Amino acid sequence: MSEERIGFIGLGMMGLPMVRNLLDDGYRVTVFDLDDSVVSRAKELGAASADSASATASRSDIIITMVPDSQHVEAVIAGPDGILEGLSAGSVVIDMSTIDPEVGRKMASLIEAKNANFIDAPVTGGVGGAEAGTLSILVGGNAETFERALPVLNVLGSDISHMGPVGSGHTTKIANQLIGVATVAGMSEAFVLAKKAGLGMQAFFAAVKNGAGRSWALETLGPKILEGDFAPGFMVKHMQKDLRLADQLAAKTGTSLPTSSLIAQLYRSVQASGPDADSQGHQALVQAIEKLSNEQARS
Ligand code: NAD
Asked: If pLDDT is split at 50, 70 and 90, which confidence band does 246 have?
């Protein structure tokens, strides 16, 4: 059993399976989430629970945050009853959420002022990767803290990349999202075209899935689209958040992102289609393409 005690905050689609892997590896894990139902599920797996982020930090050597967006990370770390209030000198905070790199850097300086350490370590690989412990983890921070965190990161992922100083992990993740979202958009257009042109959808999928268009999105999300399965995975609202982060970074760096900007508009039309539309999986992008051509990409 590792001597490092883990605190884990944010037990959503990603956090809960990550906690399961840490427990299975023998780590002692204390969890906190605003949603009591997911805390109960973590306790069933063998985690202890605390009633605030601050109490979680005070019982932990390494504290992981896996919450939706920048404001949630700020609240969990620097808000009332936040990590900073319970943090011991020498401990490590790892933010694995996808957020604004500037906010990561701001959190790092607050944490370093308490003689503790911060790295950003967002992930890619989806819920399947979180469950299997095969995430790609994109790390920003100093080498010493990276080495200290590595045994824990190795439980959660199989491909750990140290990208540079604090903020480099978040920056890498934001750029990565543009690759993923473009493949979902291309796949959506291909499916609608194939259907409208009279092809059998299962035959089309089987014919192209191992060709040059092969991708994680096609393999994982393609069958879901064909079945009309829009359960999350990775929610529309989180992808829209990532596209906003990309747009902010692009504005700051003078980068033009015409394709991603158009895709963000398509996601907006999905979000506008109903009250729960943005809690669907991000494969729901196909719904925007389907509406434009009045055709459903179903088998
Ligand atoms: P989610 O919405 O399923 O879960 C987020 C959890 O954080 C919820 O349980 C929520 O109650 C909790 N939370 C929010 N604010 C909190 C607070 N102040 N204190 C305590 N708990 C709080 O999100 P997710 O899909 O697990 O994603 C988490 C992060 O990981 C996001 O930044 C997302 O972009 C990123 N991510 C998600 C995926 C995916 O496939 N789902 C893949 C890679 C990265």
From this structure: very high
173 catalytic residue (yes or no): yes
The active-site residue, picked from 106, 173, 195, 241, is 173
Q: Is residue 146 part of a domain?
A: yes
Last residue of a domain, one of 116, 149, 166: 166
Write out pLDDT tens, residues 76-112: 999 999 999 999 999 999 999 999 999 999 999 999 9
Atom of ligand 1 nearest to the CA of 126: 40
Name the average pLDDT for the chain. Answer: 97
Query: What's the alpha-carbon Rg for the chain, to the nearest Å?
Result: 20
Residue 179 and residue 280 in one domain: yes
Q: Ligand 1 centre from 186 Cα, in Å?
A: 26
Q: What is the pTM of this model?
A: 0.97
**Residue 298 has what pLDDT?**
87
For residues 156 and 254, state if they share a domain.
Answer: no
pLDDT at 284 over 90: yes
Can you tell me the distance from the alpha carbon of 239 to that of 59, in angstroms, rounded to the nearest whole number?
33
Using the 3D structure, point to which of 166, 186, 218 is the last residue of a domain. 166
